[in-house]
Amino acid sequence: MSWFKRKDKKIQTPSEQKAKIPEGLWVKCNQCKEIVYRKEVEANQMVCPKCNYHFPISPTQRLNLVFGEGKYSFMFREIRPTDPLNFVAAKRYKDQLEKLEKLGKIDEAVVVAEGKLGKINTVVAVMDFSFLGGSMGSVVGEKLTRAVEYCASKKRPLIIFSCSGGARMMEGAISLMQMAKVSAALGLLEKAGIPYISVLTHPTTGGVTASFAMLGDLNIAEPGALIGFAGPRVIQQTIKAELPEGFQRSEFLLEHGMVDRVVDRKNLTEELIKIIRLLYA
Q: How many other C-beta atoms lie within 10 A of the C-beta of residue 71?
């Protein structure tokens, strides 16, 4: 006769029990590879508390940081991309644009907004890497040009946060024309004595670097950002030589006079306010 019967559900020891951890509570740092509590990273403005790695942030997050959660209004949202070349590769360009618009990416690869920065009305443009690598096409060029013209007419300082893989191949020469278009427009601000501050974030490459990203009255970079025209691998294969450690990173460019300052994200808004007050006085 059996006195004890095993229950259907096996009894688990504490070591066998798996803790149910909700997804998204932790994030792995791309630099130090540490697993960090997401809320801790968010409280630190999306910067790793272990190694100071600056995580990519969305245009909305960037605008909230710059304007200190203050009010700002979007500009030029009515401008929409087209497919002038009927470009087809692995995917149709038109299909890619339609998919991104359905995902809510109505601002294309750059968001432009106006708000008060240190009590001074300022126009801020933020490039969005999640829209086709932040590539510069006709819409990016048009929105930035209009932002420059608006600042020139209204006497507003301009800040552009660059984050881009370069010109948009799906628009061919039309995309390349935007380099000259935006660069020429920036001359209006120079003539009017209105400050233009360029902030280079990770990554800023290609035609964006070769044009407006390096034309600021002051060029500021976030720590560890990749900044350059061609990628390190392409350069190394071309010149057939080993590249210096940290080549094309913010700190290397600062040391060699290519950028004026490297500023941590937590200090960036305060730094921008100081600069605008100095240049706009």
A: 9
